[in-house]
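Quality-control log, excerpt.
Job 1 of 2 completed; input and output follow.
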Amino acid sequence: MFGTVDTYRKVIALTGPLLPLISFLARLPVAMSQFGSVLLVAETSGSLATAGIVGGTLSAGQVVCGPVLGRLADRHGQRTVVLAAAAVNAVATGALVAGALSHLATVPLAAIGAVTGASVPLIGPLARSRSVALAHRAKADEGVVGAIHSLEGTLDEVSFVIGPALVGMAALLAHPAFALAGAAALVAGFGTVFALHPSASVTAGSPAPARPAGRRVGQPGVVHAVRGSLFLQGAMFGACQAGIAALTVRLGVPGQAGMVYAAMGVVSAAVGLGMGALPARFGLRLRWRLATAAGLALSVPLVFTDSLLPLYAVVTVLGAACAPHLITAFALTERSVEPARLAESMAFAASSLVAGQAVSLALAGRLAERYGPAGAFAVVTAAAALCLCLALFTRVPAARSHALPTAGAPTEDRAAAKESAAYAGR
């Protein structure tokens, strides 16, 4: 216990106490915009189909453009990219609210949704890559790097519990428009603060590294397998949402759907925070296999669940397998790619998760309509089984395939180190 606290104390010493808080508040709009846009458009248009189209284009924009923003951050630095993306996203979110309230036609509203998704500032992936860069410059050990992934995974999980809850509360007490307006204010304010925080200096950007002819850089096999695993985890999330919604509607308590899904997120966040206590001998390959095996074992009871209390119990327990898989997947990504491409790779990983969720929601929703909640829950189990297959059959090297950046070579690295000292202890 004390060792875990000491490890997280080292993480906070690297980042400063404000950076995790700022990044958490800046990533809340991502969790609010998808759900909020669907509720808002459904409310103003009276059409679930239109709401689904707008929500789908928002997801598509994030999936397609997320890796592009990550690459730009690698090349030109996080500060410039996040400032621009946050400004565009705030304006686009505001335009989406205005368009929905003025009953704009489906096509232009979907186009605004696409711009909103494309300009999401990727605070989660960028915060991970920034904190990892701080750890590498300080020559921190792998235990601290692992704790960074655990902390970031926990912040993601908590944001995806609180974000939809805030949207639901705004819709219940007033109107979904207030939730999206709040998301626009959060991304404009805290996205800008995240961009301007002194820690951004350690991700000042660098030109694309030259690749010698015929030489493979990094571990592309692992990277592609992990992206596939995250796509399947997203599919599990989407199918869970569809199945939970279908079952609670069947039971006559549709308002419980959000609470059930939130329970999974709370447990996932708690277990994710505890991941920082795992000793180094539990390597990433073993963690990946155990997490995906647990996901499969804990998802099977969902198919046979047909009442509310067992649904709460099964979904809550399933949450214990989610964060370990996500944290391990992002840690494998960090270890398998060159530091100069870390933000792009983290963004690609996050986009894979979003893509899986979007595709699965559409598929599992149809299956739930035809076969009931069990049809959607069967998708959860099938995706979990494929996740385990990837973990079992992917060869994960025991060591990094690339050198970590040193703190002394390039001039901009020395400048970054000087600026980093400005926020030590903040």
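Job 2 of 2 completed; input and output follow.
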Amino acid sequence: MDVQNPSAPPRAQSRVARNNHPNRQAAPLSSGLIHENRRHTARFTVIGNHLTQHAELSLVAIGLACHIQSLPKGARVDIKTLTARFKEGSTRIAAALRELEAHGYLRRERQRVPSGRIVTRTVSCNQPGRRACDDAPHDHAATHPTPAEKRAPRKKKPLPAVPFPVYPAPALLQQAADLLSGLRRHDPHLLLSACDTAHLAPGVAAWLERDVTPAAVRHALTADLPPEGLRRPAALLAHRLAAQLPPLPPLRTPAAPPTVRHPLQNCDGCDRAFRSPTPGRCHDCRTSVATAA
């Protein structure tokens, strides 16, 4: 792996020595940034400048991506765990995670474990658009492809990132997966693989989480499809889920509980009718008894 840092030339000290030559005029001082770098030999992570200097990511998203890339395999990176670790709060962390997913630095995958349970795994991508298998060495046969293999594409283009729900409840993700599986009944070209369904399900769940009905989500995904069919239906659905994502619904103030109307009772003292959950005396009779006592 190339770990060179373009901001720290490897022979910075020799340049300083040359600048101190008595016959060389010193360069004018600048008010800009000056790097004081030392080479790391342990406990460090290589981060690409395409991430640290990303023009569209927020500072929270960049910092969160650097933190996630530094974690060991198997570490928990759900919203609850990250909120306990940082002080930005669940709302800002959830928004930062969605930014990283939209730009390909994070990917959510649903997998079935040996026990049969389906779990969601988070994949951190230090170079969006490339997967680990792209850099794996090939065997000897792969170095001499046949003419047919030369004409075939080498790798499948990854699907666009989809939004992710703030609270990915299993029931919500299952409802989203069922909706995607049923799209083929509306258009046979929308027959999706299990892998594509797992990639798209969080995006559908994000729509459902915004109080969009399943019928409205289905219409948004299937309306105005090309009449000649689709070469990559999952890519089109992923694009629509991200580009047409509706805003969060307005915060609704909980309605006040209804006023309880107790049944009518006859007072044991004056026989007047009054409302009470249980038989007994009315307020006036109770007051007079208390005063007499």
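Post-run check on job 2. The two ends are 93 Å apart (CA to CA).
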